[in-house]
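so the lab meeting is tmrw and i was supposed to have these ready like two days ago... anyway. pasting both below. for each one the top line is the aa sequence and the line under it is the structure tokens. i havent really looked at them closely yet so no promises
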Amino acid sequence: MLRPRRRLLLAIIGGLAAAVAVAVVPALVRPARGPGGGPPPGATVLENLDVYGSVPPFSLVDRSGRTVSRDDLRGTVWVTNFIYTECTETCPTQSLQLARLHGEFADASDLRLVSITVDPGRDTPEVLARYAERHGADPHRWLFLTGDKRDIHCLARGLRLSVVDPADATPPACDGSAARLSALALAWLAPGPALATHGSQGLVMHSARLVLVDRAGRIRAYHLATEADSLERLRPNLEALLAGR
């Protein structure tokens, strides 16, 4: 067990980290704008359909208790995001936008929406089931996943999204093996990661971006759930992938 003085020190450090992230990170996530409000010349626009890498392997648990892996989603077009049920910041907006897609694309049998909790200690399958019911989520078309915290946070990083829990004195190491060094080096050549926005009361800081994935498991676009312009580009991108273009 940690001594009281050490626990107090870790709490202070965690609080300071959260405060800095809340003050600094939101400014970092805003896309750069050039003259007239558009992207600067030569900038990568993450809402444009392209190939930004591949989804890393994962194995998580759905609200029904069934295991869901990357291979289970192969052959479908999917939109994934990271939330948690106690979040009162960007999560309600993200879930609202996915609920709208859920209704608008009701006839798209090969579309999946995949919401993954970044707070699995609290968000058990039962908790996620209640959250999903409040949003009218079809259990076959809109998945809510939980699992091991390290696996989830490393999956987010593999998707180039940031997740930070200030309560973690030692964040999980996801790229410790030498075999991943080359892939890590290649990441510098691709568009920069979508940085985090703060979560409910600074509990968990996480990205508000929706990730668009094609049938082959490739990352094709990123869309910010809190920006109307970004969401407007999501729908034609979805239609293009569903049509096989």
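ok protien two:
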Amino acid sequence: MPVARRRPIILGLVGDSAAGKTTLTRGLTNILGPQRVTHLCTDDYHKYDRRERAQSGITPLHPDCNYMDILELHLERMHYGQPILKPVYEHSNGTLVRPEYVQPKDFVIVEGLLGFSTPVLQQFYDIKVFLDPPEDLRRIWKVKRDTSKRGYTEEQVLAELAKREKDSEQFIRPQREHADIVVRFSQPNGTSLEAAGPHLNARLVLRPTIPHPDLTYLVESADAGSGVRLLLGRDDARPVDFLEIDGTVTGEQASELETAIWQHLPDLRPVSEDQFGEYMDRNEVRRSHPLALTQLLLTYHLLRQHTSASQRFAAPVAALSRLDTANAPIPK
């Protein structure tokens, strides 16, 4: 009898360009282990390369600029543990290159611009996360990234942001309402965006659309001045929990909180600090404690879903085994 295979757990990370999707993905992959994670970027489903988009005047944020139907089919296949032949978009030069054979592993992280934009796509995620930085902060991030990695001048980046604004408002930001978790990094009050550096505050909106782990121990186990708060409030008129992490969290305080979270991740061994919580500031690697804690908490959700799926998977397999035994011929 063939052995049934447990389907992968799929996390969706959606946000506008330079919102921090790839940074979060990198940390999650390192924590879970690259051998257990498949990464899928929805930007690979662009219909047109950079030159063709410039000629037609369409932006990559518009659904008509992307093969949304193929993305839906591929996400369905990944949901059921089946491989895909994924297109590839080369960000460094804006070209479409040879497709890539992709086999889903235990966890699939799908990140990009339009991952929650259709009801079909929304149904295949176990966890949906939307990245929602303030627009002025995202503009700084985009200028730094595109001038250092993608060959643009600052003037070109700002012109492209202006060109994309209409599509961003119409197609990207509305996806926020479909997320289970909304993550926002922002500068502390009274601090300039440039000066904030790695000391950005993190605020997670935890919606009751999925079960969230009990996080009260994070606050209870920490000192009163730890800079971590769990609050009850409303978001878009819906009751939610807010998890707030101050950018002023010290290395010692962050280490205590990280240790507390690691104790609730029994399927993983703690990895070194240089494996998560890091981001690129132009060509310089920097570390953010709020980012590290955010990545650990998202890992918590992924493993919870993985454990739950394993338990659901075990019962049917056991039942099939009993049925197979019951139908076996009686030995003579």
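from a quick look at the 2nd one: The radius of gyration is 21 Å. The domain at 1-128 is CATH 3.40.50.300 (Rossmann fold). will dig more after coffe
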